[in-house]
């Protein structure tokens, strides 16, 4: 179906009246407003439309006055629950959905089947209520979905935060959608793997009733007045709009203002039932949050849109990219929205020239397709079964990262954006085949005053990107090419007359040790090829180039120019975060002292789209706090990371280490790699708020290429670098399931292990107190004191002050403590008996039940496995050696699963390795792959595979990659190769050899 094709829905096309049951999700007005257009055309063709909705009736009746419209006020799903106008509460969304759609599911289905039969529905339409599709199937009625996103995709990320508790929600939603015959897909769509038969239609937008001139005349606003429509669908509680928020000569139309909210004279309150399309067409720009309704109508009426990001709603990046692709969007920082620094954004918006020229008759087109379907036309194919759609949906539904090369339907406008991101220096696909050419063409544009690029292709590519910033990405020099905001922003922060400091830090592959690091285990970690580059420039405030909105913010404060921190992060669109961040460096101070870590954590967490900046700006605060460094110059930072996020290869540690390394170099600080890693751990633990151990930062800072960093995490003692034998090779395979170290499961397991340590110390203490000759006559915890030798009491005394869980020998754990630890315990019960668990970076929830035995057992045995692994590595090459190393990895993997840190995807990958290892062909070839395990924090991410260093092993890794894709629809990324840590790389101090000519 071509987007511009116009189809009439006429009464003559069918011989009798049809009955449509149209279900509307409870999330936002955007769904209701687009349903209005489709329903209007169906009613105009002579059909009955029954709307099942929780939205106010006026949304529909203001556009459709017809006896053929029936409104049934029922809410069958809750959408995304919002804590405020800009913030989605992920856990509350899942809990509310459980209450609304899961708990009463049986009665909902029975009621809907009965109702559908009572109205004699010919077709069920869903936008995009999952249970409607299942109810239609149970009633024997065909169903079609009309949407730009599906709830399995939206809720998938929420499930990763909630852990296993709500996983069944996504599975159930995907299964419900699989009963739908096909999808009518709207522009700006997300990947929707539950649907395999798809028809694309143009934008669905409401029609205009009045002209711009008519609306302005009714409002008494002349053409010389600049008008912005404030369209939020709800405003932050207690928020007062102020006159100074608008530039002189501007007025603002306010949608959704409460009746008791006082508005200044340059703000005009609109009635709740005001018809916003006419008001949008009469305005010069719009300020609001992104949703389908606002974006589609802004594009249709070519209205520049100043938007503020919402948190945790995964539909938004796709709509945002479409908006910006057609040059219709300006992003406003939430901080500036709430503090009223609007002027710079509004003035930028009215300079835009939105260029959307596609069709806007999607309502008419969709109505015709629905009518034809109701009278028996078949748009669906039989090539893919519902079971196959469901299987794909489950795996792809959890695949939340938006990265080049994923196997999902991506619209042309989004694919173009991804192709451009593929050019970024941080992209894993940005390989450089001709190193010498890069060295001569781009490296020579900079004078290297200190350091060496070590011939690393990604470093030379990063220098190349710096050299191109103000040339290829100059709007004036290449106007026909759509520009990436990130490049434009980066080009505007560097002063080419000043020195730039560049640092590089790799991600890591967790070979052995993983989550046992916070319990003091030995770990073996390999720095990977993919790395993060950070460029830092310090400039006197009077010479610093700052963005217009930052300049306007300082002028509004009535102060002299003070040092500003400006950060640009490449690849932001691929992970739904803001591409830029800026703040006054003075804001990191609280009077004469640096801001507290707790206060900083709250500061960065208040806008989740910019929370990533905590990893970078947090390094400045840690240097202030721990080393007493004062920052009197402005700081400009460019971040470009090829370490993929959410894959369990420590993208956050690479970012922290690279940032602190570059900042230290720029400010003349001499920090050892070990100390730098410990400082970076403080950033992650106390400012970001992720309870990680230290192995990630240590590997990124202290690792060396093609060697395993061996260290004991008590707290961070490097034992040395273990050369990987020539006959052994390690690979990483990404499962496609997003891993988050801040997730509930990781934190719960960590808490459980610290609880176990506290219990072990308590048991041991009860015996050590009796070691001075006054042995009790009764058993303690099931042990008769008379059976204990004197030196046994000494062991108990040592164990009563156990500093790290991993210092407990496995045989002692098995013989004394294992059977005395509970499988799990309620937080409240633990606190009543033990008062606390002595972990400074996690907090026990009294109402939560924590596993104890498995999280306690894992690090004790993992420490033993790591020591055995390290001892076996240098042994003579043999199948026995490789098989034993592999077996240790398998044991580690299954121990993760016992802790609750497994995942479907990583289990499947490990199973595929096992299948290949034990196949007849592998046995006849003396084996090539020998073991695999989940890495890092678990609950998704990647697996590490060990094998023989030969061509056949690489072929088998590719075979696993293809088999995983065939089973799940997702093509795993392969991590192979290694590179030096930040300490080995050092830093580059560079200066531009010449100043680029200007037009």
TrEMBL record:
It comes from the Eukaryota. Gene3D superfamilies: 3.30.230.10, GHMP kinase, C-terminal domain (3.30.70.890), Glycogen Phosphorylase B (3.40.50.2000). One of its GO terms (biological process) is carbohydrate metabolic process. Residues 496-538 form the Galactokinase N-terminal domain. The keyword Protease does not apply. Residues 615-703 form the GHMP kinase N-terminal domain. GO terms for molecular function: ATP binding. Keywords: ATP-binding, Nucleotide-binding. InterPro entries: Galk_glycosyltransferase, GalKase_N, GHMP_kinase_C_sf, GHMP_kinase_L-arabinokinase, GHMP_kinase_N_dom, Ribosomal_Su5_D2-typ_SF, Ribsml_uS5_D2-typ_fold_subgr. The keyword Ubl conjugation does not apply. PANTHER family: GALACTOKINASE, SLR1395 PROTEIN. This is L-arabinokinase.
């Amino acid at each position: 179906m071509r987007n511009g094709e116009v189809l009439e829905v006429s009464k003559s096309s069918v011989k009798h009246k049809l009955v449509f049951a149209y279900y509307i999700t409870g999330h936002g007005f955007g769904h209701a407003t687009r349903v209005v257009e489709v329903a209007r055309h169906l009613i105009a063709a002579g059909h009955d439309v029954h709307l099942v909705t929780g939205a106010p009736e006026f949304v529909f009746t203001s556009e459709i006055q017809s006896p053929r419209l029936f409104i049934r006020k029922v809410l069958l799903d809750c959408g995304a629950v919002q804590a405020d106008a800009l913030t989605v509460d992920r856990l509350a969304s899942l809990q509310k959905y459980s209450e609304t759609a899961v708990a009463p599911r049986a009665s909902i289905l029975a009621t809907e089947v009965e109702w559908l039969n009572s109205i004699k529905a010919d077709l069920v339409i869903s936008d995009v209520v999952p249970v409607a599709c299942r109810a239609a199937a149970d009633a024997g009625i065909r169903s079609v979905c009309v949407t730009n996103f599906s709830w399995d995709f939206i809720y998938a990320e929420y499930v990763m935060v909630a852990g296993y508790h709500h996983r069944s929600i996504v599975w159930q939603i995907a299964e419900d959608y699989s009963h739908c015959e096909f999808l009518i897909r709207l522009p700006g769509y997300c990947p929707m793997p539950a649907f395999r038969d798809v028809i694309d239609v143009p934008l669905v937008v409401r029609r205009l009733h009045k002209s711009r001139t008519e609306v302005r005349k009714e409002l008494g606003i002349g053409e010389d007045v600049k008008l912005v429509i404030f369209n939020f669908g709800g405003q932050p509680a207690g928020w007062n709009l102020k006159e100074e928020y608008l530039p002189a000569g501007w007025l603002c139309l306010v949608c959704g203002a409460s009746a008791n909210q006082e508005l200044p004279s340059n703000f005009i309150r609109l009635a709740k039932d005001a018809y916003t399309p006419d008001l949008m067409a009469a305005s010069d720009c719009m300020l609001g949050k992104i949703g389908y309704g606002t974006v589609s109508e802004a594009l249709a009426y070519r209205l520049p849109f100043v938007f503020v990001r919402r948190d945790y709603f995964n539909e938004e990046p796709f709509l945002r990219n479409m908006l910006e692709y057609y040059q219709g969007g300006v992003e406003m920082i939430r901080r500036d929205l709430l503090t009223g620094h609007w002027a710079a954004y509004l003035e930028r918006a009215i300079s835009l020239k939105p260029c959307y020229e596609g069709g806007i008759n999607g309502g008419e087109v969709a109505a015709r397709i629905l009518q034809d379907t109701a009278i028996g036309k078949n748009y669906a194919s039989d090539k893919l079964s519902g079971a196959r759609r469901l299987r794909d949906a489950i795996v792809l539904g959890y695949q939340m990262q938006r990265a080049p090369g994923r196997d999902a339907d991506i619209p042309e406008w989004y694919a173009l954006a991804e192709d451009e991101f593929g050019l970024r220096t941080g992209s894993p696909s940005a390989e450089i085949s001709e190193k010498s050419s890069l060295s001569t063409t781009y490296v020579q544009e900079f004078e290297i005053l200190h350091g060496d690029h070590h011939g690393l292709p990604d470093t030379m590519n990063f220098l190349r990107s710096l050299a191109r910033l103000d040339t290829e990405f100059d709007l004036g020099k290449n106007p026909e090419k759509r520009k990436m905001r990130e490049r434009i922003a980066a080009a505007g922060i560097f002063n080419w007359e000043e020195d730039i400091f560049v640092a590089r830090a790799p991600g890591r592959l967790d070979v052995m040790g993983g989550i046992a690091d916070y319990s003091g285990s030995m770990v073996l970690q390999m720095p990977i090829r993919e790395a993060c580059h950070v460029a830092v420039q310090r400039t006197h405030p009077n010479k610093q180039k700052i963005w217009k909105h930052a300049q306007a913010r300082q002028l509004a404060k009535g102060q002299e120019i003070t040092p500003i921190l400006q950060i640009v992060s490449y690849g932001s669109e691929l992970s739904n975060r803001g591409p830029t961040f800026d703040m006054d460096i003075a804001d990191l101070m609280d009077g004469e002292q640096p801001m507290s870590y707790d206060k900083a954590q709250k500061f960065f967490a208040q806008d989740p789209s910019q929370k990533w900046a905590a990893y970078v700006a947090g390094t400045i605060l840690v240097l202030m706090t721990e080393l007493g460094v004062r920052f009197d110059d402005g700081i400009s930072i460019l971040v470009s990371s090829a370490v993929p996020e959410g894959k369990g290869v420590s993208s956050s540690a690479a970012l922290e280490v690279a940032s602190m390394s570059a900042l230290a170099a720029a400010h003349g600080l001499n920090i050892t790699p070990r100390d730098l890693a410990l400082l970076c751990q403080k950033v992650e633990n106390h400012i970001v708020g992720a309870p990680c151990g230290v192995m990630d930062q240590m590997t990124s800072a202290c690792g060396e290429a093609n060697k395993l960093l061996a260290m004991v995490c008590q707290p961070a003692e490097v034992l040395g670098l273990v050369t990987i034998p020539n006959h052994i090779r390690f690979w990483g395979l990404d499962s496609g399931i997003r891993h988050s170290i801040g997730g509930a499961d990781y934190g719960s397991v960590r808490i459980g292990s610290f609880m176990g340590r506290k219990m072990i110390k308590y048991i041991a203490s009860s015996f050590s107190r009796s070691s001075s000759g006054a042995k009790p006559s009764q058993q303690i915890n099931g042990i008769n004191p008379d059976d204990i030798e004197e030196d046994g009491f000494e062991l108990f005394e040592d164990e009563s002050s156990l500093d790290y869980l991993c210092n407990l020998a496995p045989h002692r754990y098995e013989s004394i403590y294992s059977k005395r630890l509970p499988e799990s315990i309620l937080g409240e019960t633990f606190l009543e008996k033990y008062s606390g668990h002595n972990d400074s970076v996690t907090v026990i929830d009294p109402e939560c039940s924590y596993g104890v035995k498995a999280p306690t057992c894992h690090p004790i045995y993992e420490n033993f496995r790591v020591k055995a692994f390290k001892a076996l590595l240098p042994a003579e090459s043999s199948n026995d050696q490789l098989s034993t190393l592999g077996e240790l990895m398998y044991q580690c993997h299954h121990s993760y699963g016992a802790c609750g840190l497994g995942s479907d995807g990583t289990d499947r990958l490990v199973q595929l390795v096992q299948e290949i290892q034990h196949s007849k062909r592998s046995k006849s070839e003396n084996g090539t792959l020998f073991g695999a395990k989940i890495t890092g924090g678990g609950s998704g991410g990647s697996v590490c595979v060990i094998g023989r260093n030969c061509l056949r092993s690489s072929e088998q890794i590719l075979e696993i990659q293809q088999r995983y894709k065939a089973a799940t629809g997702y093509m795993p990324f392969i991590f192979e190769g290694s590179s030096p840590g930040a300490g080995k790389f050092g830093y580059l101090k560079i200066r531009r050899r010449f100043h680029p000519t200007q037009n």
